[in-house]
Amino acid sequence: MSHLDRLRAVFRTALNLPADTDVDDLEYRAIPQWDSLAHMALIAAMEDEFSVMIDTDEMIDMSSFTKAAELLERHGVGAAAR
After folding, report:
1. What's phi and psi for 24, nearest 5 deg?
2. pLDDT computed for residue 5 by the predictor
3. How far lies 71's CA from each of 47, 58, 78, 81, in Å?
4. pTM > 0.90: yes or no
5. Quick one: angle between helices 3-14 and 36-50, nearest 10?
6. If residue 82 lies in a helix (H) or strand (E), which one and from where to where?
7. Mean pLDDT across the stretch 6-31?
């Protein structure tokens, strides 16, 4: 499973979305499930799944699935797959 597939699964689980939900274009607050509380749960789930530490600035900047994927790349997740 690629890191992006793992990230999609983390998003679906943390935001309590159906398994077939397309999250690739998802943005913060675009759906009711992704509120500030869910954002913190999502950050924690990403840290657990990928063994990274996300700082406060990164948490604030992570406003979409795409930004989350970019954040993981900055932490070296998936960089070897290029």
Report:
1. -60, -30
2. 97
3. 11, 7, 11, 15
4. yes
5. 140
6. none
7. 97
Q: Give every CB contact of residue 17 below 8 A, 6+ residues apart in sequence.
A: 11, 23, 33
DSSP label at 12?
Answer: H
**Identity of the residue numbered 50:** F
Please name the residue that has the structure tokens 């954040």. Answer: 71
Report, in angstroms and rounded to the nearest whole number, the Rg of the chain calculated over CA atoms. Answer: 12
Residues found in the chain = 82
pLDDT band at residue 82 using 50, 70 and 90 as cut-offs: very low
User: Would you tell me the crossing angle of helices 65-74 and 3-14 to the nearest 10 degrees?
Assistant: 130
